[in-house]
Amino acid sequence: MAKILLVEDDELIARVIMLRLEMCDHELDHAINGREAIDKALTGNYELVLMDMHMPLMDGYEATRVLRTRGYEGVIIAVTASALDEDCDKAISSGCNGFISKPIGQEFEKQVSACLP
Which whole-number Å values give the CA distances from 24 to 4, 20, 68, 100, in the listed order? Predict the structure, then answer.
């Protein structure tokens, strides 16, 4: 069981992801934008941050850059519908450790497990 921070602004997508991962006995916390994600990630003890890249107020790219400049060393995985090579590269260059495409598929739980330290 891992403690995971899900950063997702779409309520329906967040509920689906949280339900699926809770069924795998993971403990989930939720942030709805990049600003909230920064506060939670820096004060929580998460093994993994699943970061949506396209959100209002502060997107996942900026939130990830801020977390890394503030010394956050945890695993951050971009979770986004943008599967273009440029977007994958942008997520990695902003500080993400990896990338999972949306819509999430049958292998999602295995993908998340593979990202855990």
Answer: 12, 7, 28, 18
